[in-house]
Write a structure and sequence with these properties.
Radius of gyration: 20 Å
CATH superfamily of the largest domain: Vaccinia Virus protein VP39
CATH topology of the largest domain: Rossmann fold
Helix content: 25-40%
Structural class: alpha/beta
Strand content: 25-35%
Strand order of the largest sheet: 3-2-1-4-9
CATH class of the largest domain: Alpha Beta
Length: about 190
């Protein structure tokens, strides 16, 4: 399915080169499957570049055993200039560090401390954390707990400044703001 979408994107970009940048490649199986599918389109495959953004070297070794010469590993999307193609993220957004907040008389952030065991300290949330909810028109009810992902905006900006003509495919799960901040999720969604 992803391979077919990539072919459509390539056609829309005048069948020129196609650069794929993958985040969250895990074991490399998705990349492997995409490349195997795209090998059937010799014209596209001949002009294909596939980059995996890898923050941790541990996963790279396993991926290298599985993947072919089309794949190159990079530490940052900034290593590629003027990307024409597609950015694929696979279960990346849910791996970013989040701020855990609780609505009291004002929005409070939960900090973890250790005093004869782990404890949660509540301190007033930063202005940036408070502002995060405003564009979504979210008002938390008193005692409502939630998570706020400030890293996702930085990640999106990093991608945006490095692309010239690009599609994105994001594979993840989650909720819309309306669902995420509904009364039935008042304890948040953080799991580990």
């Amino acid at each position: 399915m992803v391979g077919r979408r990539l072919e459509e994107m390539w056609n829309l970009m005048d069948k020129y080169s196609l650069t794929i940048v993958g985040y969250g490649a895990g074991s490399g199986i998705l990349c492997f499957d995409i490349l195997n599918y795209l090998k059937n389109n010799k014209a596209l495959y001949g002009h294909l570049k596939y980059f995996i953004v890898k923050k941790r070297e541990v996963m790279k070794k396993g991926q290298q055993k599985l993947l072919d010469e089309k794949v190159e590993w990079i530490k940052s999307i900034g290593e590629i200039k003027e990307i024409k193609g597609c950015v694929i993220s696979n279960e990346v957004v849910d791996n970013f560090v989040v701020k855990r907040v609780v609505m009291k008389d004002e929005l409070m952030e939960v900090f973890v401390d250790y005093q004869d065991g782990f404890v949660g300290d509540l301190l007033p949330a930063s202005e940036k954390t408070k502002y995060y909810l405003q564009p979504h028109c979210v008002t938390l009810l008193k005692e409502y707990c939630a998570e706020i992902n400030l890293e996702v905006e930085k990640w999106i900006r990093e991608i945006a400044i490095n692309i010239e003509r690009c599609f994105t495919i994001t594979i993840d799960y989650g909720y819309s703001a309306y669902e995420l901040y509904a009364p039935n999720l008042n304890r948040g969604t953080l799991t580990c």
